[in-house]
Q: What sequence folds into this?
C-alpha cells in the first residue's frame, strides 16, 4: 500500500505491506532508483514480516527539499522516518547507495538496527578519479539531460545475460532513471562524491549482518563485499550467481531466499534473548 508522511519537513512516499506487529524490514533503494525496485521483496516477505520500502529524498515520489543532499542527511531521514512510524528497531536492507545510507545511520544510532543487509554496496569513499568522474557527469547532465547518461548507466548496472533474460527489469530501470529529475540526480551525484568512508567503523557493528553481491557486479564487485564481510564481526557473505549490480531485480528468487533465511535467523536469535 502506498502512503506518504512528512519526515524532517519533507514529504516521504513509501510502501508498507505485511503484518503491523511483525518485525519491520526497511528497504533502501540505490541511485537513481525508487522504492518500486523492491516490489518482489515486499511480496515475498509480507506473510511473515512488515516490509517497508521508501523513496529517498529527491527520488520517486518523495520531496527533494532545499538542503544540500548528503549521505548523512539521507541517514538522518531514515532514522526520522523510523521515529515517525514509531519503529524502534528494524532490519534494514540497503542496495548500493542504500547501503551507504544504512552504514551511516548505524553509526549514529546502532540500537535501531535488529539486523543489516548490505546488498551490492561498499564501505569506501570515492577515489579522486571516481569523484572527478561524478563531477564530469554532473556537468554532462546539466548540458545534455539524462538520455545518454541513462543508457551508459544501464550497461554497468546489469549482468550481460540480464539484457536478454530480464528485459522488463532493464526497461523499468531505464524508465526510473529518466523519471528522476535531472537536478535530483546531480545533487545526489554530489552527495555520493562527498560521502565519507565507513570501513573504519565496521568492526564496531554488533547487529547481525548479511553482505550480498552479484557475481558480475561491476560497480561494487565481490572484493568490496568480501572486504566488508571480513571486517564486520560474524557477518556472512552471499554471492548471487549470474547477477550484476541489481541482484534483487536480476535474481529475485535467490535474493529473496537469502533475505528470508537471514530474517529467520534474526528472529530465532531474538526469541532466544
Ligand atoms: C547505486 O547503485 O546506488 C550507485 O551505483 C552507487 C554509486 O554510484 O556509488
A:
Amino acid at each position: 500500500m502506498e502512503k506518504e508522511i512528512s519526515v524532517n519537513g519533507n514529504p516521504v512516499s513509501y510502501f508498507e505491506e505485511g503484518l503491523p506487529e511483525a518485525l519491520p524490514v526497511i528497504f533502501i533503494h540505490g541511485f537513481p532508483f525508487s522504492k518500486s525496485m523492491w516490489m518482489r521483496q515486499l511480496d515475498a516477505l509480507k506473510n511473515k514480516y512488515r516490509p517497508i520500502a521508501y523513496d529517498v529524498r529527491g527520488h520517486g515520489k518523495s520531496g527533494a527539499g532545499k538542503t544540500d543532499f548528503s549521505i548523512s542527511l539521507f541517514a538522518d531521514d531514515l532514522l526520522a522516518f523510523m521515529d515517525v512510524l514509531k519503529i524502534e528497531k528494524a532490519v534494514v536492507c540497503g542496495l548500493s547507495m542504500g547501503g551507504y545510507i544504512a552504514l551511516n545511520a548505524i553509526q549514529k544510532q546502532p540500537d535501531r538496527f535488529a539486523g543489516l543487509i548490505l546488498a551490492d554496496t561498499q564501505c569506501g569513499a570515492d577515489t579522486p578519479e571516481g569523484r572527478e568522474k561524478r563531477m564530469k557527469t554532473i556537468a554532462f547532465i546539466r548540458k545534455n539531460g539524462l538520455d545518454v547518461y541513462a543508457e551508459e548507466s544501464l550497461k554497468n548496472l546489469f549482468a550481460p545475460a540480464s539484457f536478454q533474460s530480464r528485459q522488463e527489469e532493464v526497461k523499468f530501470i531505464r524508465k526510473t532513471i529518466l523519471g528522476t529529475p535531472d537536478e535530483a540526480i546531480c545533487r545526489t551525484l554530489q552527495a555520493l562524491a562527498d560521502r565519507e568512508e565507513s570501513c573504519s567503523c565496521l568492526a564496531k557493528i554488533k547487529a547481525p549482518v548479511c553482505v550480498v553481491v552479484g557475481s558480475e557486479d561491476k560497480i561494487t564487485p565481490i572484493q568490496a563485499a568480501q572486504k566488508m564481510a571480513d571486517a564486520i564481526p560474524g557477518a556472512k557473505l552471499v554471492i548471487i550467481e549470474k547477477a550484476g549490480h541489481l541482484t534483487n531485480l536480476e535474481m529475485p528468487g535467490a535474493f529473496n531466499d537469502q533475505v528470508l533465511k537471514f530474517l529467520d535467523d534474526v528472529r530465532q536469535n531474538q526469541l532466544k534473548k
The radius of gyration is 17 Å.
